[in-house]
TrEMBL record:
Pfam families: Hist_deacetyl. CDD domains: HDAC_AcuC_like. Transmembrane segments: none annotated. This is Acetoin utilization protein AcuC. GO terms for molecular function: histone deacetylase activity. The gene is acuC. Pathway: Ketone degradation; acetoin degradation. Keywords: Acetoin catabolism. Belongs to the histone deacetylase family. The keyword Lipid metabolism does not apply. It comes from Planosporangium flavigriseum. GO terms for biological process: acetoin catabolic process; epigenetic regulation of gene expression. Residues 20-313 form the Histone deacetylase domain.
């Protein structure tokens, strides 16, 4: 058994919507930076080429009508969410989308079957796709495809944690009535940001109450507030649920330089989040962790650094935040994105400390109010006390 499987080859760059915010260069530069820093050459790391998800796997979460629409879509197609500014039709769309789904599927299978302890698919994390429509740059919902395969292989409890700046609405929708899947999403408030869902009151359907958890954070939330919210909600909920495997969507678009959102995280805060997710996988799941990418639109400035930290955490020792970025990688980034400037170091120069949550009823700030709203909505359903910071 290997320690970590990284599912990757250059064919995954074919998920390319053209002149569009979701540029595959973010994935190319991530894998190049991780390679330059030796992360992919560590002992116990196996690189695995993906295969496309087949129709049966896609039909576990999508309708046949939708699959047929994707296969035959043209620039004149205007149903199923296609040919909008968010979701343009692009060449070989079905093949490229099925390959991304297949990469996440392979990661999940390798972990569940005991071939590896952890697995990562940086190209994955397309969490907005719905059963019958494209949404939010996402054609096929690869996290849901992977989770469905885990269920089919015998998993009884799967924890899904989504730290993208946008609500993980597609995954929540697909498993909203399934008590075997707990979805937890930390995101910017739907009052300010797409997709307009992810309120604390969304707690799971009949028979699955308490298995959908949403932490809607105010614009401007930085590392300290984000980490306070994460630690006030996620560990207690997962410890109660006792997942057998942890699946995470690690969108990097909460970064303060991201052009499409309004949170203020640094790569240091994101790195701290990945370390917390690793620790929860170790504590609760015997280390079994499937890590996926997601959104991220600061293509040079933030995403490659954040996801290289993720790859380092998944594959073993975290990287020193003060590590210099190789000049060869900076030259590659300048060639691919000449209008953007890369950072010099793997850090934003921030120590992401936070103060643990306490009820703070006298003068709670907006972040504390968000935390308390989520705890009040869902903690009683889990048998936890929303006012007890020990829960």
């Amino acid at each position: 058994m290997t320690d970590t499987t990284v599912v990757w080859n250059d064919a995954l760059l074919g998920y390319d919507m053209g002149e569009h915010p979701l540029n595959p260069v973010r994935v190319e530069l991530t894998m190049a930076l991780a390679g330059e820093l030796g992360v992919l050459d560590r002992p116990g790391v196996r690189l695995q080429a993906p295969k496309p998800a087949d129709e049966a796997a896609l039909l576990r979460v999508h309708t046949l009508e939708y699959l047929d629409a994707i296969r035959h879509a043209t620039t004149g197609t205007h149903d199923h969410g296609l040919n909008t500014p968010d979701n343009p039709v692009f060449p070989h769309m079905h093949d490229a989308s099925a390959l991304v789904a297949g990469a996440s599927l392979a990661a999940a299978e390798a972990v569940w079957r005991g071939e590896t302890t952890r697995a990562v698919s940086i190209s994955g994390g397309l969490h907005h796709a719905m059963p019958d429509r494209a949404s939010g740059f996402c054609v096929y919902n690869d996290p849901a495809v992977a989770i469905a395969r885990l269920l089919d292989l015998g998993a009884e409890r799967i924890g899904y944690v989504d730290v993208d700046v946008h609500h993980g609405d597609g995954v929540q929708e697909i498993f909203y009535d399934d008590p075997r899947v707990m979805t937890i999403s930390l995101h910017e408030t739907p009052l300010a940001l797409f997709p307009g869902t992810g309120y604390p009151a969304e707690t799971g359907g009949p028979g699955a109450e308490g298995t959908a958890i949403n932490v809607a954070l105010p614009p401007g939330t930085g590392d300290a507030g984000w980490l306070r919210a994460f630690h006030a909600i996620v560990p207690s909920a997962l410890r109660t649920f006792r997942p057998q495997v942890l699946v995470t969507q690690c969108g990097a678009d909460g970064h303060r330089l991201d052009p499409l959102a309004d949170l203020r995280l640094t790569v240091d805060g994101q790195r701290a989040t990945y370390l917390a997710l690793r620790d929860l996988a170790e504590e609760l799941c015997g280390g079994r962790w499937v890590a996926l990418g997601g959104g991220g639109y600061a293509l040079v400035e933030a995403v490659p650094r954040a996801w290289t930290h993720l790859l380092a955490v998944v594959t073993g020792e975290p990287l020193d935040p003060a590590l210099p970025i190789p000049q060869s990688w900076r030259a590659l980034a300048a060639d691919r994105c000449p209008d953007r400037r890369s950072a010099d170091l793997m850090t934003d120069g921030v120590d992401p400390v936070y103060h643990p949550w306490t009820p703070g009823f006298d003068a709670p700030d907006a972040i504390d109010r968000s935390i308390l709203a989520t705890r009040r909505a869902v903690f009683p359903l889990l048998g936890l006390d929303p006012k007890d910071p020990r829960d």
